[in-house]
Write a structure and sequence with these properties.
- With 266 residues, this protein is mainly β.
- It folds into 2 domains: 53 residues, Roll (SH3 type barrels); 202 residues, Fumarylacetoacetate hydrolase, domain 2, CATH 3.90.850.
- Helix content is 13%, strand content 41%.
- It is built from 6 helices and 20 strands.
- Strands 1, 2, 3, 4, 5, 6, 7, 8, 11, 12, 14 and 17 form a 12-stranded mixed sheet that branches. Strands 9-20-19-15-16 form a 5-stranded mixed sheet, with no helix packed on it. Strands 13-10-18 form a 3-stranded antiparallel sheet.
- The longest helix is centred in the C-terminal third of the chain and has 8 residues.
- The radius of gyration is 18 Å and the shape is globular.
- The N and C termini lie far apart (39 Å).
Length: 266
């Protein structure tokens, strides 16, 4: 299933994104309730996908990120982030950094270089702590697309990543949550980032240094994850800057595309 969170006028809800068997057009079938909080039912209401505004598919309490998870990216960023480590590198983005799949990315005036980082993201299904590798699939609700936007000059200046990663709008996710993928399937997906239509990143999740069960097991060894929390899995090589006025799009195979234009913060 593809589960979206969307707005029509002032109304916000969840819906299934489906394809009409006759017309081939895509529409959103409204659901009642919250997909992460219990059984859901289709209400019978539906709208064309083009007529709704897609929002971030979840509102997480936190976004947990895995850094340095692709060897080629580690190599290109060695002067800023150092060499690869035996254990996953973990950092957080605040919930206020989350933006929708078409929302603007605000370029802060204090930064001279804002970078894109396209990633696969995991949405957590239930409260979990100390999850063994073999139980990782039990706590995954589904997968979505993310952009770990980073003020690269501030990351280098600050020597730690909170400010550089934490600005409002620095975590667009969407366009929906895709359920039903196995971990094996999720670990062999293409991740592509374009800027104004030009390919800048092209990798596969099969290149992970730390696999999905390892990431979940490691993070939950010291932190409780809650339903709707989002785990970013790292970015492939090719990260680079975007300027005000440019549009950055991240596509993950089988999951969809998010496209966000960079604008100056007033």
């Amino acid at each position: 299933m593809r589960i979206a969170r969307f707005a029509v006028g002032d109304e916000v809800g969840f819906g299934l994104v489906e394809t009409d068997s006759d017309s081939g057009g895509e529409y959103v079938a409204r659901l009642n309730g919250h997909p992460l909080l219990g059984d859901i039912q289709v209400t019978g209401e539906r709208a064309k996908l083009a007529d709704v505004r897609l929002l971030s598919p979840v509102l997480p309490t936190k976004v947990v990120c895995i850094g340095k998870n692709y060897a080629d990216h580690v190599a290109e960023m060695q002067d800023i982030t150092g060499e690869a480590t035996d254990e996953p590198v973990v950092f957080l983005k605040p919930s206020t950094a989350v933006a929708g799949p078409v929302d603007p990315i605000f370029h802060p005036s204090v930064s001279e270089r804002v970078d894109f980082e396209g990633e696969l993201a995991i949405v957590i299904s239930r409260p979990c702590r100390e999850v063994p590798r073999e139980r990782a699939a039990d706590v995954i609700f589904g997968y979505t697309v993310a952009n770990d936007v980073t003020a690269r000059d501030l990351q280098k200046k600050d020597k730690q990543w909170t400010r550089a990663k934490g600005f409002d709008s620095f975590c667009p996710i969407g366009p929906w949550i895709t359920t039903g993928l196995s971990i094996e399937e999720a670990q062999d997906l293409a991740v592509t980032t374009t800027v104004d239509g030009e390919i800048r990143q092209s990798g596969r999740t099969s290149q992970f240094i730390h696999d999905i069960p390892g990431m979940i097991s490691y993070v939950t060894s010291f932190m409780t994850l809650l339903p709707g929390d989002v785990l970013l899995t790292g970015t492939p090589a090719g990260v680079g800057p975007v300027r005000v006025g440019q549009e950055v799009s991240v596509t993950v195979e089988r999951l969809g595309t998010i496209s966000n234009r960079v604008v100056a913060r007033d």
